[in-house]
Write a structure and sequence with these properties.
The protein is α/β, with parallel strands linked by helices and 436 residues long. It is 34% helix and 23% strand. 42% of the residues are buried. Bound molecules: S-adenosyl-L-homocysteine (SAH), iron/sulfur cluster (SF4) and FE3-S4 cluster. Residues 52-53, 161-162, 164, 199-200, 235, 237, 262, 264, 302, 304, 333, 335-336, 338 line the site of S-adenosyl-L-homocysteine (SAH).
Length: 436
């Protein structure tokens, strides 16, 4: 028998890309490809890209440049570009980098095997009529205890800075029965924790029995699956946090006490210019209601600093919001003008000012993150073991609150969900002892 062909995938960007990469690997698996983590031995290299900030996009071109010697050495090497840069730039990628054999967008990757078979350059950035999920191969392999499951794609919100509505297209929710089938199948293959994904996951409104379902109803039904112990979802928009979803945080033990709820800015003026359609007070009120339902819930957010027109006062409002809400974690970015978005037309804040603000904001967030970690010391939480740690006898997993936890447990097994007591906190993780 001949050696199977090897596929190397590099994934940039968000969790939805991580999920898509997995599905693309499976699609190519049905064509006889196995994945490799060594690019030098690959027969096909697939770069699954992100367009969200300029730096993320430019990374693609520097990585493609680095593939030139390999392609020269192995002329049969297939090079593919998938994901959001593929969608945004299409054939331009091949013009700039002729070594690219195929370009495929996030809604068309079920056609990847066909595109890869062609002997001539291919570009597919359609938003096809058919649902790609109906054209992907059944999944077979046994797998680790955690999985992503995309339930909703695209975005209709059109925040003034963001490319996602253009690269991922309009909001579409997958039908309930397909999601339940996929979730049951994942659980039958060893998964105990599922993170439901969507660019606006809490705007989910997929067809189920009796009409459109909310995310909360979907989560309650998923929670009935025997063996599915933990459910998370990301990313949510503040305007779509409906009452039933907040209630689920209060009474559904499977729904983990961690919520990523990006606010972007604490200034009403900037929120308006960003087209976020909520105020800082709306956000405070929402946070209060969520914390009332689940007092120990940890919140995280995304922040953009240096949005066009952001004054010192606007920035101070963001700092004030962070101080009032207090986050368990946060991701912050310097505004990056993206071609085709409304904000890109406006004059940018001076780079040095934006840099300075980013540093100041990140220092506060780091302080809060440490405080949240220190606050866990002495508490009992659940941990799902994902892998063995670096030290002998050590297991690593995520706590209910999504902290990485190292547990000294020589008898521990990957996939076990254990109770631990947190004994210490270091920069990016917690240590713990197992109690049951
Ligand atoms: N759908 C999610 C997040 C999408 S992108 C949401 O609505 O929150 C992830 C994060 O990237 C955003 O929350 C935002 O903080 C950041 N981001 C998006 N566009 C950006 C831009 N042009 N410049 C800087 N950061 C950006
Ligand atoms: Fe982008 Fe806004 Fe949609 Fe999030 S809600 S994906 S930030 S447009
Ligand atoms: Fe990036 Fe596309 Fe995700 S732009 S953040 S990979 S949706």
């Amino acid at each position: 028998m001949s050696e199977p062909k090897k596929l190397f995938i590099k994934t940039y960007g968000c969790q939805m890309n991580v999920y898509d990469s997995e599905r693309m690997a499976e699609a190519m698996g049905a064509e006889g490809y196995v994945t490799t983590d060594k690019v030098d031995e690959a027969d096909m290299v697939l770069l699954n890209t992100c367009h969200i900030r300029e730096k993320a996009s430019e990374k693609l071109y520097s990585d493609l440049g680095r593939l030139k010697p390999l392609k020269a050495e192995k002329p049969d090497l297939k090079i593919g570009v998938a994901g959001c840069v593929a969608q945004a730039e299409g054939a331009e990628i091949q013009r700039r980098m002729p070594l690219v054999d195929l370009v495929v967008g996030p809604q068309a990757y079920h056609r990847l095997p066909q595109l890869a078979k062609s002997g001539v350059p291919q570009v597919d950035t359609d938003f096809p009529e058919e649902d790609k999920f109906d054209h992907l191969p059944e999944r077979k392999a046994k797998r680790g205890p955690t999985a992503f499951l995309t339930v909703q794609e695209g975005c209709d919100k059109f925040c003034a800075f963001c490319v996602v509505p253009y690269t991922r297209g309009a909001e579409v929710s997958r039908p309930v029965d397909r999601i339940l089938r996929e979730a049951r199948d994942l659980v039958s293959r060893g998964v105990r924790e599922i993170t439901l994904l969507g660019q606006n996951v809490n705007a989910y409104h997929g067809e189920g029995s009796g009409g459109a379902w909310t995310l909360a109803r979907l989560i309650r039904t998923l929670a009935e699956i025997d063996g599915l112990d933990r459910i998370r979802y990301t990313t949510s928009h503040p305007n779509d946090m409906e009452d039933d979803l907040i209630a689920a945080h209060g009474d559904l033990p499977q729904l983990m006490p961690y919520l990523h709820l990006p606010v972007q800015s604490g200034s009403d003026r900037i929120l308006k210019a960003m087209n976020r359609k909520h105020t800082r007070d709306d956000y405070f009120h929402l946070v209060d209601r969520i914390k009332e339902a689940r007092p120990d819930l940890l919140l995280s957010s995304d922040f953009i600093v240096g949005f066009p027109g952001e004054s010192d006062k606007d920035f101070e409002d963001t700092m004030d919001l962070i101080r009032r809400v207090t986050y368990g974690a946060a991701f912050s970015f310097k505004y990056s003008a993206r071609p085709g978005t409304p904000a890109a037309e406006k004059a940018a804040v001076e780079a040095s000012v934006a840099d300075e603000r980013l540093q100041v904001l990140q220092a506060l967030v780091t302080e809060q993150q440490r405080a949240a970690q220190n606050g866990m010391v002495g508490r009992e939480v659940g941990v799902l073991y994902e892998k063995a740690g670096r030290l002998p006898g050590q297991m690593v997993g995520k706590s209910d609150h999504l902290h990485a936890v190292h547990v000294d447990d020589p008898a521990g097994v990957v996939g076990e969900l254990v109770r631990v007591r947190i004994t210490g906190a270091v920069t990016n993780s917690l240590s713990a002892i197992r109690i049951s």
